C-alpha cells in the first residue's frame, strides 16, 4: 500500500486532503490522519486486501438510492449503472399515478420534468424509490414580513423567570416574554436549544451537547399547560430559594422539578389513564405517533438512570454490560427483556415527560402567533450530538461514533477545537433515505416558526477528528449539500418555518451564495462586520442575513465596552497580550461608526458608562437592511455578562445566569421599552 493508495481512497470517501487555514495558507492532511479517519468511517486500510475491499465499497453502487431529491421544474435523473427499466410509475402524495419514461444519456437515466412538490413514490422495475421534489426556496423571512423589516428578541430559556418555575425558565416564561415583546412590535423570539440532555445527570446542562436532537429537555416543560395550575399546585414543593437565585443551580433545581413531575405522573396514572380522560387519550396518541424513536429515547433514559446509579457509576453506554449496549438492535436478549419488564413504568414516565414538553412548546408557539408575531419561536438546532447520549445509543449506525466534530487550528484557537460531538454518517444518510436528517429537521420545526441551524457549514463539510487525536489531526469530510438544501426547502414549506444559518467563522467559497439561492438567511454580527479594522456601516450589511449585536458566545455590548470580557478571560489565563490597548482603539472606531450612522453624537462615553453605547449599538444594528434584526435580552437590559464564555467549563458560570425582572415584566422595564421603541423606529 502506498500513500497514493490511501489518498485515493480518502478522496473517494469524500475526505479533503488539503484545507486552507484562517490566514489563507494551504495545509495538507497527513497520510496517517487520513488512514485513521478512513478506519473510523469503516473503510479499513490495515492490509492490501482490506484496502481493496474498501475501494470496492466506495465504487459505483449496484443499486438505486432509496431517496433522490430534485428541485421542482427539474428532470428526474437516476444513475444508469444501477440498472432498471425504461419505464416507471410514480405515485404522488395525493395518490394519483403517472407513468414515467426514462432514456439513457451517458451514465444517467433521464426522466421527465417534475413540478409537483412533495415526497412521491417511484416504482422502477422491482425497486421503490422516494422522490423528494422541493420548492426552489425555503419559506423566507421576507415571505413572513409582508413588506416590513422585522425585529425580534434572542433569549436563553433557562434565564427567564416566572413565579413557580422552580428556578429554571420554561415554555410558559417564553410565552410571557413573547407576549411582552409582541406588544412592542417584535415578531420573533429566538431561543436557546431545547434538545434533550441527560435527565439522570442534571449536571450536564450545556445546551449544545445534546443527548438527542429529536426530543426535548423536559425541564423546560410547564405541566400547568396540560393539567392546570390547581392540580399541579397539589404536588408542588416550595422552590422559592431556587427561583430567587441569581444563577440556575441546575442539579438540585432539576431534581426538585423531576420530583414534581414524578408525582404528577403517578397521579396521572391513577386518575386519567384508567378512565381514558381527554388528556390520557392525547398522551396515548402522542406515544403512538412517537413510535420506535420515542420509545428508544425513553428506554435510554431509563437505562442511563439505572447504570449511572450503579457502583461504579457508568455514564457512557459503551461501558454498560454487553446486553445493554446495542441500542434497539437486540430487544430479544434475556437480560434486556428482564429489564424492560421491570422498567416499563420508568419508560412510560419518560414518554410522559416528552409529551408535557411537546405540549408546552406547542402552546408557546401558538400564543406567540396569537399575540401578533409573524414568525414566533425560532428554535436552535445544535450541530451534533453527545456520543454518550440517546441518539448514539439507540441509532448507532446513524453516526460516526469514532470521530468528533471540531474545527481546524486558526488564529483564535492555535491547537484547533474538538467539540466532543458526533455527526451523521454520509453513508448511513444515503442508505436510510436521509431519515435521520429529516427526523431532526422536523423535530426542530414542529413547534416553531423558524429554525436557526448552528454551524450550518456542516451541511457541506465537517472537520472530523479521530477519537483520542488532536484537533490538528482532523480533516474535512464532504456531505451531500444539494440534498440537504432541497430537503430543508421542502420541510420549510411543510412546516411554514423560516431557516437561518449560523454562517460565522471559516466559510467555504461560494457557500453563502448557495444559502441565498435557497432562501436561507445568514447571520451578520456587529463585532465581525469590519473592513480593515473599522466597523462597516449597517447599510452595507447583507440583505439576506439576520443582524445581531452579539451572540451567546460573544461579549454583550456593555461587557465589551467596559472590557469585562478581557478582565474575565485575563483572570482565567485566556486573554492575549495587548487586548486592552486594542480594545481602546476599537471603542473609538465603533463610536465613529455609530456617529456616521446617526445613532450617536458627541464624544464617546467612558468605559464605565456603557448605557449610551448599548442604545447606539441596538439602533446601529436595527438600521441594517436585514429582513430580521434580533436583539439579545442581555443587550436590551444592558447587562455586562455573556451567557457562555468559550474555552471554559466550571471556571465560569456558563448557561446559568438568570434575568431580572420576570419574563412577563421584562418589557415593562422603562429602559427595555425605550430601546424596543428605538429599534422599531429604525425598522421601516
Shape: globular
Q: What is the strand arrangement across the widest sheet?
A: 22-19-15-12-11-27-26-23
Q: Measure the end-to-end span.
A: 65 Å
In total, the number of strands is 27
The largest sheet is: 8 strands, parallel
What proportion of the residues form beta strands (DSSP E)?
15-25%
Low-confidence stretches: none
Tell me which oligomeric state these chains represent.
single chain
Helix content: 25-40%
Calculate the mean pLDDT score and round it.
94
* Estimated structural class: alpha/beta
* Cα gyration radius (Å): 26 Å
Number of helices: 22
Pick out its properties.
single chain; 684 residues; alpha/beta; eight-stranded parallel sheet; five-stranded mixed sheet; 22 helices; 27 strands; globular
Task: Give a structural overview.
The protein is α/β, with parallel strands linked by helices and 684 residues long. 38% of the residues lie in helices and 18% in strands. It is built from 22 helices and 27 strands. The strands form seven sheets. It has an eight-stranded parallel beta sheet. A five-stranded mixed beta sheet has the order 3-10-9-5-6. Helix 20 (611-622) runs parallel beside helix 22 (670-681). The protein starts with a helix and ends with a helix. The mean pLDDT is 94.
Short structural description:
The chain has 684 residues and is of the alpha/beta class. Helix content is 38%, strand content 18%. It is globular, with a radius of gyration of 26 Å.
Helices and strands, with pairings:
Elements: H1 3-12, E1 18-20, E2 26-28, H2 31-41, H3 48-57, E3 67-71, E4 74-79, E5 87-91, E6 97-101, E7 103-105, E8 108-114, E9 118-124, E10 127-134, H4 141-145, E11 150-155, H5 171-183, E12 188-191, E13 195-196, E14 212-216, H6 224-227, H7 229-233, H8 240-244, H9 250-271, H10 278-308, H11 334-370, E15 376-381, E16 385-386, H12 390-394, E17 403-407, E18 417-422, H13 426-431, H14 435-445, E19 450-453, E20 461-466, E21 475-478, H15 481-495, E22 498-501, H16 511-517, E23 522-525, E24 530-531, E25 534-535, E26 545-548, H17 557-562, H18 564-571, H19 579-597, H20 611-622, E27 628-632, H21 633-636, H22 670-681
Parallel strand pairs: 3-10, 11-12, 11-27, 12-15, 15-19, 19-22, 23-26, 26-27
Antiparallel strand pairs: 1-2, 4-8, 5-6, 5-9, 7-8, 9-10, 13-14, 16-18, 17-18, 17-20, 20-21, 24-25
Helix pairs in contact: 1-2, 5-11, 10-11, 14-15, 20-22
